[in-house]
Design brief:
globular, Type Iii Antifreeze Protein Isoform Hplc 12, alpha/beta, 3 domains, seven-stranded parallel sheet
Length: 430
């Protein structure tokens, strides 16, 4: 890793800092405020949230007094407050992304529409953008990255989330010339595609998260989105629609994620997938090599006798690691993780139950759809609707349980900003 710690310490000693503006003060955002508060050379100067009290609470928990926190939706007042060494809480994303003092914007709302808007406005206002919002990335990340590159800015996914942790292992193996057999993550919850927020109220309360957020994990949607981001950043593809998701263990990963001819489950190498079992909360890459000398070295180094070898990271620290990608963007102008270009895979909504014409689809972690992952060309050929566009869509016809949602099944919300960006992205790659 580049000398981020030394560079941040140098900033601190010079009386300078990387100034961060944060969109979203939920669980991830609140933790990020506290994490950055203990770091050298970096500070969060503003938080935007629909509920300002959440932003105020985030700063209070990080040790700031009420006198240091200014709540305002005025850009002039916000800029003046930050200049006077205070911090700002606002409802307005447009204020957050225009702050004179902000160097980097972190998007942590979890909403594809808000993420698209924040990403676009940040780039338009000359700010680097770090996406904790993977849902927005897999919908319009290719376009946002292109816009950022053209503006001389950084668009990047965050360190710490499973995709950001996984890309470290992938880049390590790919740079050394190993062949990638599979890259994946452990799923934290048992898979129940038909789970709804009502089913998970008690468990969500015990975990201190919203039932909707927990549902997105339990029904597999978050896993599909996360591995979609990895696919788009590496070129690896799902071996089958929705991936395999076997029940296995760290000890068995190499055997499980090998070709069928080797006793495994894969039809091909170069895939993304996930595992249910003791793999969570870790991420893994399965590698192989044709070089006999390297095979002998790997055996000598206690990596096993092959033909496949496991690279495993047993943790990911989510928002706690996000400052690393903030620093990399601000100090070196480098992204932690970006889409390669044209999307490689797409996350597609699937009916959780029999749905009726006229129903409004409620989006990620809701009552109407779960998600699956397919190769992007298949999605285009079949007219599948990207997950990021599903919220607010009205069904034009009945849809059966487990049926994949297509564009021609729905009327989309034309006021949706993410829809407009997605159309631009599609035209860019036509």
């Amino acid at each position: 890793m580049l000398r981020l710690n030394s560079k941040l310490e140098e900033l601190e000693e010079a009386g300078q800092s990387i100034k961060v503006a944060l969109a979203g003060a939920g669980q991830m955002g609140k933790g990020l405020v506290s994490q950055i508060s203990q770091m050298k050379g970096m500070q969060i100067v503003a938080v935007a949230d629909l509920y300002p009290e959440r932003g105020v609470q985030a700063f209070q928990e990080a040790g700031l007094s009420d006198e240091e926190i200014i709540v305002t939706d005025s850009l002039d007042e916000a800029d003046e407050a930050i200049f006077d060494d205070k911090v700002v809480v606002t409802r307005e994303l447009r204020v957050l992304t225009r702050l004179v003092e902000a160097d980097v914007v972190v998007e942590a709302t979890g909403s594809p529409n808000a993420g698209a808007l924040v990403g676009f406005l940040a780039i338009n206002n000359g700010k680097h953008i770090v996406m904790l919002n993977v849902e927005a990335d897999v919908t319009v990340g290719s376009l946002l990255n292109s816009l950022a590159e053209n503006a001389g800015l950084v668009y990047t996914l965050s360190a710490g989330d499973e995709p950001g942790a996984l890309i470290e292992l992938y880049n390590f193996a790919d740079a050394l010339g190993f062949k990638i057999v599979a890259a994946g993550k452990g799923k934290n919850n048992p898979l129940d595609r038909y789970a709804t927020p009502d089913d998970l109220i008690q468990l969500a309360a015990e975990k201190g998260v919203s039932p909707k957020m927990l549902t997105a994990f339990v029904d597999g949607t978050k896993t599909m989105v996360e591995m979609n981001a990895v696919s788009n950043a590496t070129g690896l593809v799902p071996d089958v629609p929705g991936m395999h998701g076997p029940v296995t263990s760290v000890e068995e990963l190499c055997r499980t994620f090998s070709l069928k001819s080797q006793g495994g489950i894969l039809k091909r190498e170069g895939v993304v997938d996930f595992a249910i079992g003791d793999v969570a909360p870790g991420v893994f890459v399965i590698i192989t090599t044709d070089q006999e000398t390297i095979k002998k070295d790997m055996d000598y180094l206690k990596m096993g006798s092959g033909p496949n070898y496991l690279l495993y990271r047993p943790y990911h620290l989510c928002n706690i690691e996000t400052p690393l990608s903030v620093a990399l963007a601000a100090l070196y102008g480098e992204p932690w993780m970006i889409p390669l270009g044209k999307p490689v895979s797409e996350t597609i909504p699937v009916a959780k139950r029999d749905l009726k014409a006229g129903e409004i689809l409620d989006g990620i972690g809701g009552f109407t759809t779960y998600s699956t992952l397919v190769i992007a060309k298949v999605a285009r050929d079949k007219g599948y609707l990207p997950l990021g566009l599903v919220e607010g869509a009205r069904l034009k016809r009945d849809v059966s349980r487990d049926e994949l949602i297509t564009y021609d099944m729905v009327e989309l919300d034309e006021s949706s900003f993410v829809l407009q960006l997605r159309r631009l992205q599609d035209r860019m790659f036509e």
